[in-house]
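Moderator note: this is an archived Q&A kept for reference. The question asked for a predicted structure of one protein chain; the sequence and the answer are reproduced below.
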Amino acid sequence: MSSSSINLSSLLKVAGDDIIRAYRTKYFTTGIIEASGDFLSNKNAINWVNAENFQHFVVEWLQVPTPCTPQIIESSTSASALPLRQYKRQRGSSTSSEHSVVIANKRLRRVSRSPPPITWVTPNKSTGTPAKKHARYSKHQAMTDAGWIQITRQQWVKQLVELTEIPTTWPIPIEGESIGYILDLTNSAFKFIDSNGNPLSMAAIIKNKCVDGWGDGSGGTKDAGPVVFPLGKIKTQRAIHVCRGHFMCLRVDSSLFFKYERYSDDFKTFEEIHNAQMANNAAEADSVIGVAAAFYNSVAFRTCKFNDGKCKGQPIIQTFERGSTSRDTEKYTGPCYYTVPPTVGLKQEKCPHVHFENSKLLNGLITRHQCPAQIIIYTPIDPSIRKAVVITMPGLPHNNPPYALQKLTFEATELYVEAIEAVGLLGSTVGQIDRAPTTKALLASQKATDSKATSSLTQHRVKQRILSGMKQKQYPEGKDIAGVKHMYENIELKQPVQERYIQSMHSELCNDGNDQIDVVVTMLPDLAELVHNVTSTQHDTTYKRVFGAFNEWEIVIWHPYLCRRVAIGRIYCNRETRQAYRLIWTEWFKAIERVTNKSVKFKALHKEGKHAIFMVDGSAPQMQGLGDFLLTQNDPLVSRIATKDPQIIVQYCSRICNIHCQQGVEPLKAVCSHEDYNRIVHFQYIMTQEKMDEFTAWCLGHEQPKVRDWWRNKLAYPWYIPALCRHFSKVPSADWDLGPTNTNLNEQSHQATNRATGVHIPLAEAIDSAFEYDKQISRELQLASENCILTNHRNTLTHRFISNNHWTSLRIERVDTADRIRKEVTNIEIKLAAALEEKKIAIENVNQLRTEKKQVSSGKKINLKTSGRGFPTPAVAISTEKENFPFPSLSLPSSSYHPTSAEPFYASLPPELEPPPSSYNVHLSYLQQSRLYTNSEPVFPSATCPPNLRSNQ
């Protein structure tokens, strides 16, 4: 029906002011109504009401079912006579015109969002009874008969729906309807607890799952909250919230949301807006000016940090010198589609997309658009009750589409926390947790069936926030040295010495005054006890496991009884100077004495104990720091070592790893001959001082500067040659021979620790993860001793020699193979060079012959395929049957032979046709015996054959 056929004036008159007012409220916001003044008044409705829309609105309005509300007549008696209130219901029907008018007006009246008001009948003051001709009728009974369901003393609904899962959007009933929802999460698989383990309120759980940003309003009070009957008459807290609306760029076309109403989920609309926004992203990346403008926005959105953030400079954008940008800017003059979730809101001030207007780059500010939707949540005061009642106000739909569930829900948080706990918090990363088999199984379980609840876990930053939150809770003071200090002072020092892992922390100012040295000593007491029963310890620094300024210094031994490698201590330090290593050595031995109640005895100094060798990697600060420590332990009367030079005393009990020495020599291979390199590598086996002096002179006089510099560096440390060369060491020969030759145990321990704890982890996490790993090693040692079962029973001295020989053989085989291949390739290169030289000579000969040919032929083309008479030169067929054949005694195939097309065939002609040369005497009898002239059939026809050849005719 067209609007012209509608009598708008009559329809407005019949509808009345209530419907006109409701129509205006539906299509216009309060701000527009107030700003328009009398234009949007009821009297001026004929000028602003759309006839067709108003007709549909009236039809829908009148067809909305209304509750049967009894007409109540108030008595004139006083209310103080009786404590109970009563009311009268009119019986029968009235036929008066006045009553009919009331009913008609009632049909046109807008249905209230709350139960209709009731006029109470006050009992007669004198008699204490209701007025005559009126029966007693309770309010509850009246509402029940009218089809309403009581929620609280004042709240009634017409329909109550039970839910066991939290919806992402709560439906809005139309005007005249009233629906309540009972949400029961009693049997939910989720716990719904906060970071401290306390149960969350149902209101928080409901709003967390909802994509609409419910906020503002009132959270209610717990002291005077209403009693909710559907929940078993329990006391609740009532929260009334208003939708926060939608947040979008100021450049967004307002027509996208004009007259938009949403009563239920409408994700398709949001999906269309999202796809349009993605198209804008693609357009920006496909345009030169779009990329330039995006870069400009990235600079303009940030504050310059120059001069402590006081810089007042502003970025500018210049016009392109070449080419027109007008067509480019046309892409961005259309509407923007950028929206911001309610959880972010106005925290984001500007739109990140490109906007042009009149060829000028403009900023898009984020604005908020109010939404009239409201919600009421009745939450039990007791948080252990997992039930709630939710009511959305009818007739107040959302004016914006729902957003995607980007925010982190409690279900997703709880699910990922379980995944982290299954993998382990220490040293874990998001990538490790996502790749863990336990995580995949957990995400495929029944708890993760709601894809919307866990959709936020597709974002890496969300998962990182969960993981960081758990680590922050475990390390409230941080994960650097401050956090370790907090752990040491508040946890470790409160425990007995035998139960501590962090044994000591020591700080000291650097001698250069630039920084502070921090040393953290960690070890388990039962592992530290092993140092008293070994002849050597290996010490090496690993740089991969700890992130930041600190590095880990690991002490490893070979357990002589259980035949296995054991890391007995880990020390963390932020410097690698001589002073730092002196602190490391000192604090480690102090901690051992404090934990084991006895100090370590060195054979060279104390003339007792078993410890004889410190195996190190050759680091100069480490050796110098060890020498400084040993001087504090030396008693010349006992050790008979009278030196006070730390670089001398360290020679009595230290040894440098052979492999580290070879690695230091490796760069010289590129500048030395094979013979020179072999001599340098094997210098550690020199036996006499004379040979060493000769080697020194040879190195210092070498033609390569790198060789000279390398040896000068070694001569600068008096302890280097004695710690590397057996025949120059002050360590007893027996101890030297029984000691290790390298720090391979350290290197193996580094790899094992990295696999168990992870790498590039903060200091506090590194200490805690190493603590768990060391406890595991301690437990394995304990079980091996108790059960008499070694972790690896093939680790005896013989087995290790066999294994070492095997790997040595493989290494030699690889070297030999590489050498053989190198020699073969060298021979091939020599042959190839010779062949190329021959090729060069051959090319020169060819060119010379071509020149000679050109000179002989005078540059003319000579046909070499003719005999000079213009006819092809006949080929000679070797056949005894051909005429003029001078060797008749040769046997050839019989006359049955027939030549093929691939074989040349030449007919033998008689002498009359081709006379034989004078030098040959060919008889006719021979020709007649030829296979070409048989008695069976002549070769030539009779017309051409001479008579003397016709022997059979």
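Archived answer notes: DSSP finds 33 helices and 20 strands in the chain.
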